[in-house]
Design brief:
alpha/beta; two-stranded antiparallel ribbon; 5 helices; 11 strands; about 20% helix; disordered N terminus
């Protein structure tokens, strides 16, 4: 549960347990999302992906990735590589891009020095606009830009994850060279992430199960027959 992750009860060790999913950008070219989904479903995992939406400009594969993952029924999120272009201006740029792609979950990629302070600045802007926000960084590249007001997607390619804070909802455990190197059909060897609850974001909870549903109901009438 999300509560247990806040308490730090989720084991964050290698080999990681949990569903795996890729995150991609235009450098991967044209991703075969059907192959990605088939691979995930063959392991009993949710079809899930994160793809780059932009950095200064729109990623050249963003529109295709949004269309393909949407039509195939993926849980998906977009990430924006944060640069120092002005918080208000960048916030508007992100909002417009994500609305156009019909994406509801924004991952803020905070990993360069110029992004310092931008998580604390951008996260409330995006949350007020109705987006679910996740913040991404790693211990070695965190510029001090986290807001601590959104779940964390953390990169670390060693045998153990050392959470900067909780809840960690996903662990990027490989860049395709180091860490939990995994071949993803349709993508190849690239960024691979472990699902620790990120794919529950934006998904309505299942209705409660009625344990007495199999039994006939007794109906009482008052003031009538």
């Amino acid at each position: 549960t999300l509560a247990s992750r806040r308490l730090g009860l989720t084991p964050l060790t290698t080999p990681p347990t949990g569903g795996l999913f890729p995150d991609v950008y235009e450098g991967q070219g044209t991703v075969d999302w059907g192959a990605v989904k088939a691979w995930q479903q063959s392991h009993g995992w949710r079809a899930a992906a994160i793809f780059k939406v932009g950095e200064y400009r729109l990623d050249t594969q963003a529109q295709r990735n949004a269309q393909q993952t949407g039509s195939l029924g993926f849980w998906r999120a977009g990430y924006w590589f944060v640069r120092n272009t002005g918080c208000s201006a960048e916030g508007s740029q992100i909002i417009n891009a994500f609305h156009a792609l019909e994406l509801h979950i924004v991952a803020l990629d905070l990993e360069v020095p110029e992004a310092a302070g931008y998580g604390a600045c951008l996260t409330p802007i995006l949350q007020r606009a109705g987006f679910i926000v996740v913040e991404y960084t790693s211990p070695g590249s965190n510029p001090g830009g986290l807001s601590f007001a959104a779940p964390l997607w953390q990169a670390e390619y060693g045998p153990t994850l050392h959470p900067i804070y909780r809840p960690v909802v996903s662990w990027q455990c490989s860049d395709g060279v180091f860490g939990c190197v995994t071949f993803v059909p349709g993508v190849g060897h690239d960024d691979v992430n472990v699902d620790y609850g990120i794919t529950n974001l934006g998904v309505p909870p299942a209705p409660p199960v009625d344990p007495f549903a199999v039994f006939p109901k007794t109906v009482f009438r008052f003031g009538g027959d």
